[in-house]
Amino acid sequence: MKKDLFLNKQGITVHDVAAYAGVSSMTVSRVVNNSDRVSAKMRKRIEDVIKELNYIPNLAARAARSGVQRIGIIFTNPDSSNLGNFLMGALGSASNLSCELLIEPLVAHPTPIDALQALIDKGVHGVILPPPICDSLDVHQLARKNSVMVLSFASASPKLYSPAVLIDDFSGACAMTHYLVQLGHEKIAFIRGNASHSPAASRYEGFVVAMNESNLEVNDQWVLDGDFSYKRGMQAGKELLDRPKSERPTAIFACNDDMATAVIAVAHGLGLKVPEDISIAGFDDTAIASAVWPQLTTIHQPIKEMAARAVKIIDESIKNQDKDKEKKVNHFIAPFELKERGSTAQLKK
Fold this sequence. Notes:
Elements: H1 14-21, H2 25-32, H3 40-53, H4 59-66, E1 70-75, H5 83-97, E2 100-105, H6 112-121, E3 126-129, H7 137-145, E4 149-153, E5 164-167, H8 169-182, E6 188-191, H9 198-213, E7 223-224, H10 230-241, E8 251-254, H11 257-269, E9 279-281, H12 287-291, E10 298-300, H13 303-320, E11 331-334, E12 337-339
Parallel strand pairs: 1-2, 1-3, 3-4, 4-5, 5-11, 6-7, 6-8, 8-9
Antiparallel strand pairs: 10-12
């Protein structure tokens, strides 16, 4: 059969591929589904036809027929200390619920929209998105257009119309700031996170409010921008600590653990003792917080449990989305805990 016959078709089907290759539709399906019941020669022949006709399997339809919930996850930072715990929680929950997880790294795509489209093309029923992707209206619109449920994970600005799992970043930052003040610190610096992430803004707001509540001034020279990375934490730490003692803060509160532990490394490199010369605190309580010396005082965010809950909530939301349009959207707020460890101490007058 000539290829020209297919040029004006809206979409190439498995039957078109079969007709062009001169085989049965079942044989083409076996190749598409990676069945071992097709010879290598026949597989090559069919794969060449698929490529020639630009046939794209309808993975969404296949997923619907299987009856198994397909949940996509996009992660933004492969170097994040949170990623391991997140994946452990999500995979464990998916196994218990018999869901299928599809993990998509953002770095593999030009834009977040492209990453989401890739998951939609693979037939996902729902997606779990971190900030800043989950805060994008364009992302939500694309998902809704394709009847894909979105769960916002760790966003400080969850959408009212879609489920979310988060902690109270504002209150956590308030609690840490008040704790440092109670230790006698008044000269407190803050290293902000990525400005495009809503939790970063909420944590900074919590710091500012707590300082004001304590009648302390926020020194703009001690508020530095960061991007949640260890590298940026080292740069900010050097800027804050490589100066005369009279010009240094006595405590530094970083927006996450990666930046806070980097500041500890900078302090060691400058010959400063932690916490005798400088108290340092972080946020998240990732694995690095307990691995560094001295261990890091931080706000514990139960990422593993939150990820497990996220999979459970989105699975339930997908199953129930056509049953009760008026059902309340599930926003689960996980508890945080201030973990006092060796990197902070009472200020010596």
